[in-house]
User: Which sequence fits this backbone?
């Protein structure tokens, strides 16, 4: 009897399963096409919505671009210190003199250093005023920049008036191998920068440190390019989540070069193919991770730039337009490293620095040694036709598209 009862229970279960299967088959056959059609329609609607959003964004880009004069577009290609545009000895506020200077030269961005920041209230008011003056002049917000890597390269965290903890050197985080720690460090930095009003941090460092003299030893995540790539991508996530754009640097990677570009030329003798197997790995990962800005360093790549002499990458068409744009397919904003360092000082005078950078494919020129001379030189190059205005517009579209990601 127990066996017979057990068999009956099994039979009932089998009948139930068959019934459920029949129902599922009926549902898929009888109602499946409509369900699939609805799903397809939903996907198509999403694609149409995304396409419409992109079209709307591009329309906005063109509208803002058409509203600018040539002089304003040229100014937008520069990121400078507040002193460079205002003439002040040490800028700690954005008053009438700042308004006048930024109305005449609505630069694409302003980069601040420790000397500019006294306390939280002062810094926030200065950034707010700068943002308002530039947007009022040309219709787009500026990049409000700082170099806040952590460790030895900070402009804010070491100021006791801000009451902030330094997240420490990136090498220490790399040595621990904790990707989440790298992400948290970026979120910590991004949060306090956003709170002050900064919207672009000139970090993270994507250089792979294998140099003998250890120039990048504390700033780089390490000597393993794949580890560095993982850490860099985590930091891109961290900054993004806190509403701050970031710039992977120093393309194509200065961690293997001997010397410091602040003190003179630095060289690489590798081919592009050799770089792709090592130095470029973190940058390729950052590009795949939609990094909004890449900073090009002053490494002279002799094999890459044959025919260019020893031009540093920051002024090299082979490095920017060739390797970064065409080979790696990067379509975001490219900014040079600071053009005030010794590695670029003897290449040309200030009036030609921006001309060379823009011809090489850069979008933003960071801190030329004389802003007004560099601005005039670039404007003259466009007016006389050695740089077509369409080339300026090409960079402006990338810049505006990126700035539309920022709060207005």
Assistant:
């Amino acid at each position: 009897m127990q066996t017979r009862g057990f068999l009956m229970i099994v039979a009932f279960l089998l009948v139930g399963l068959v019934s459920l299967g029949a129902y599922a088959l009926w549902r898929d056959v009888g109602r499946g096409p409509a369900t699939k059609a609805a799903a397809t329609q939903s996907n198509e609607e999403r694609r149409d919505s995304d396409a419409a959003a992109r079209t709307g964004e591009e329309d906005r880009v063109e509208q803002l671009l058409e509203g600018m004069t040539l002089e304003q577009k040229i100014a937008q290609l520069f990121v400078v210190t507040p002193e460079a545009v205002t003439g002040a000895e040490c800028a700690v506020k954005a008053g009438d003199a700042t308004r006048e200077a930024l109305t005449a030269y609505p630069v694409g961005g302003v980069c601040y250093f420790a000397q500019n920041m006294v306390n939280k209230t002062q810094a926030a008011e200065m950034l707010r005023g700068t943002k308002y003056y530039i947007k009022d002049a040309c219709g787009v917000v500026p990049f409000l920049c700082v170099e806040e890597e952590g460790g030895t390269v900070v402009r804010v965290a070491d100021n006791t008036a801000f009451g902030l903890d330094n997240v420490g050197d990136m090498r220490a985080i790399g040595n621990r191998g904790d990707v989440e720690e790298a992400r948290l460090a970026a979120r910590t930095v991004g949060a306090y920068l956003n709170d002050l009003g900064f919207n672009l941090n000139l970090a993270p460092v994507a250089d792979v440190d294998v140099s003998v003299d250890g120039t990048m030893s504390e700033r780089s995540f390490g000597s393993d390019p794949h580890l560095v790539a993982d850490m860099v991508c985590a930091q891109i996530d961290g900054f993004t989540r806190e509403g701050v754009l970031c710039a992977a640097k120093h393309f194509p990677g200065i961690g293997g070069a001997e010397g410091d570009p602040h003190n003179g030329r630095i060289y690489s003798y590798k081919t592009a193919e050799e770089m792709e197997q090592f130095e470029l790995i973190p940058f390729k990962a950052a590009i795949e991770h939609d990094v909004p800005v890449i900073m090009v360093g002053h490494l002279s790549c002799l094999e890459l730039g044959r025919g260019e002499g020893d031009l540093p990458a920051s002024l090299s068409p082979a490095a920017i337009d060739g390797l970064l744009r065409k080979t790696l397919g990067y379509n975001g904003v490219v900014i040079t490293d600071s053009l005030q360092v010794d590695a670029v000082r003897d290449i040309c005078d200030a009036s030609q620095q921006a001309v060379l950078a823009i011809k090489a494919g850069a979008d933003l020129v960071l801190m030329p040694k004389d802003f007004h001379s560099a601005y005039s030189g670039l404007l003259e190059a466009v007016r006389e036709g050695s740089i077509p205005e369409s080339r300026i517009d090409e960079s402006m579209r990338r810049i505006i598209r990126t700035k539309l990601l920022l709060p207005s």
Notes: The CA atoms of residues 141 and 403 lie 7 Å apart. The chain has two domains: 2-30, 70-403.
